[in-house]
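Summary for the steering committee. One of the milestones for this cycle was to obtain a three-dimensional model of the protein with zinc ion bound, which we needed before selecting residues for the alanine scan. The sequence and ligand used are listed below.
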Amino acid sequence: MAQINPSILSADFSRLAEEAKAVEGADWLHVDVMDNHFVPNLTLGVPVVEALGKAAGTPLDCHLMIEEPDRWAPQYVEAGAGSVTFHAEAAAAPVRLAREIRAKGARASMALKPATPIEPYEDLLPELDMLLIMTVEPGFGGQAFLDIMLPKIRRARQMIAKHGLELWLQVDGGVSADTVERCADAGADVFVAGSAVYGADDPAAAVRMLRHQADE
Ligand code: DX5
Ligand code: ZN
């Protein structure tokens, strides 16, 4: 079954705990950590993740859009994240980092920006629990879905099948009622949605609707 991960980036930051509770029933809560260097935006860090982990009834899927993830990612596991995603473009030693995240007890995930090919990372896939294909340039919520990424999602799914791997394939950026089915058809099974969930009158209903569409 498809997993839907609402992105807290599109929530009201002055009411984070309530906003987290508004999407109970979602599989994971997606938390976008940005450092103003890897991406031109600054969001939140370890202390907020720790507080959110305690307040939310949903496990945290932390997406680190930061420089030096080798140095910082383990702290997000210690703060309570159940899944930690680092960017391939920023990691100095992705295999070592993925192993460290797993050893500390979280799921290890690696993200690729739109212009980063998957092929150079094929041999690393067994080290990961999830691969994130960005379907917008990372940095902001509410951007238009890049449908030129669909062939990359398809190639990733084929690669996962070829190696007989269990890893999840996540898409993030512009996922909505209009685009979720195309992503699912291409082989994605974990869907991040920010504006499509928090921009809806009933965020929990939006999660159920997206899951239903993805599973069709
Ligand atoms: C963008 C973030 C996304 C963002 C998605 O850099 O990684 O998680 O919150 O927001 P929407 O779903 O509105 O594109
Ligand atoms: Zn994200």
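Key point for the committee: The mean pLDDT is 98.
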